[in-house]
Specification:
It is a single chain. This protein has five helices and two strands. With about 110 residues, the protein is mainly alpha-helical. It has a two-stranded antiparallel sheet. Strand 1 and strand 2 form a beta hairpin. The protein starts with a strand and ends with a helix.
């Protein structure tokens, strides 16, 4: 969904156009609240742990999930390889790639 209208509550002026939602609109309410807390804690994970009463790995996991939702997460080598394997399988399912070629490509992936 994309917003198409903005209204000023003070004067009632309305602007209609094709607006692009910002990347933060992709965050769930929980992720948005986490990012707000993370910023209030100035990025200090230990402070976030104390505020939420959760472990360091849980804080890191929530941060990674929020970064992914924002399109800012770095892909690990394993994640990149998994995505490449998924793309090969999708190409086979579409009929764009013969099975023997796919098998060779998957074997090369290791």
């Amino acid at each position: 969904m994309a917003p198409r209208e903005l209204c000023c509550q003070a004067c009632g002026a309305t602007v209609r156009a094709e607006f692009e939602p910002c990347r933060f609109c992709a965050l769930s309410p929980e992720q948005s609240a986490f990012i707000e807390l993370f910023l209030r804690c100035e990025g200090n994970i230990t402070r976030v742990e104390r505020e939420l009463g959760i472990s360091y790995p849980t804080v890191r996991n929530r941060l990674t999930q929020a970064l992914r939702a924002l399109g800012l997460a770095r892909q690990t080598v394993d994640e990149a390889a998994q995505e490449r394997r998924r793309e090969i399988l999708r190409a086979v399912a579409r009929g764009d790639l013969p099975l023997t070629t796919a098998a060779d490509a998957l074997n090369d992936e290791g």
